[in-house]
Amino acid sequence: xxxxxxxxxxxxxxxxxxxxxxxxxxxxxxxxxxxxxxxxxxxxxxxxxxxxxxxxxxxxxxxxxxxxxxxxxxxxxxxxxxxxxxxxxxxxxxxxxxxxxxxxxxxxxxxxxxxxxxxxxxxxxxxxxxxxxxxxxxxxxxxxxxxxxxxxxxxxxxxxxxxxxxxxxxxxxxxxxxxxxxxxxxxxxxxxxxxxxxxxxxxxxxxxxxxxxxxxxxxxxxxxxxxxxxxxxxxxxxxxxxxxxxxxxxxxxxxxxxxxxxxxxxxxxxxxxxxxxxxxxxxxxxxxxxxxxxxxxxxxxxxxxxxxxxxxxxxxxxxxxxxxxxxxxxxxxxxxxxxxxxxxxxxxxxxxxxxxxxxxxxxxxxxxxxxxxxxxxxxxxxxxxxxxxxxxxxxxx
Length: 397
Description:
Elements: E1 2-11, H1 15-25, E2 33-36, E3 41-43, H2 48-52, E4 62-64, H3 65-68, E5 74-76, E6 80-84, E7 89-92, E8 96-105, E9 110-111, H4 119-122, E10 128-129, H5 137-145, E11 150-155, H6 166-180, E12 187-193, H7 202-215, E13 218-221, E14 223-229, E15 234-239, E16 245-249, E17 252-254, E18 259-260, H8 263-266, E19 292-294, H9 308-326, E20 339-346, E21 349-355, H10 374-390
Parallel strand pairs: 1-2, 1-8, 2-5, 8-19, 10-17, 11-12, 11-17, 12-13
Antiparallel strand pairs: 3-4, 6-7, 7-8, 9-18, 14-15, 15-16, 20-21
């Protein structure tokens, strides 16, 4: 067993972990910081919606993990297996004991492909597709080009998911694609969701419902996908209101897999009953361990957005409160639950949704953001990726 010691240890080298590392490295010696993550690559996942719709190749969304580690910060390319918060260390899969004074937990969220019967075996073939991983996103574009008629289905699971709008974004792009190719009248498009409404913020809910009705998309509320029969191109849904099941044939089905905290988090002493890391929803400090902070998809704050936009607001809160804790000063900086969903509604159209814990709009621009706009699509397509790679991950935004 080897042993290393750092002032700050960050578990996870994704959006949240690297953003915090980059901001911290500007405020303290980077040599005192370590990031633990086994990944070879780092992905800008928000563009996978456009990859799945044929707008761009997926290779544009990936950089090496090495290239995003902030200069001077130690990268331990191993996987954390356990936490010892009482003794202030974590263990890795290579039996490295990493001691810390302060810990930031940001490992992201796990896709559970085996959480739906038949999904793991079917994904990428038999019309079963998903934009939710780098390995499967190409299958969406391939299947989309082969649609000639029939049922096209989009699903959302009962669990919290990252990028809550993504299951809808690819649906609107698919509808637009079929319309442009004179196939729309041959295809039935349905959205199956366990939720009771299309979006939790009323202003945007009203705008989305109006758009859905105009475009002839079916909404199936209180439904959960429980099985895929790939060789028959059939999907089985449970009606959460009645408990009855419904079998539906499909030409293409875009599946959002159930998600959860990674196993090493779920099995740790850091989580609450929901299996997510337990933090104060405003300070992002752990509720039981004062020298631990957490952010990103793995926290239990209840906000419906688990994505980079939320992290962009969470990271400065974690950094400010961490630095105050080091100085023995009060933890006062607050996260107000900001979330954003750049809802792509077609090729060249986007509704920029922004809100906070109160489920009220928290808009950045001086116009009605519940309207589809080309300018907001261009923001997502070009400006936000540049801001991500050159801003957020460098500690500048």
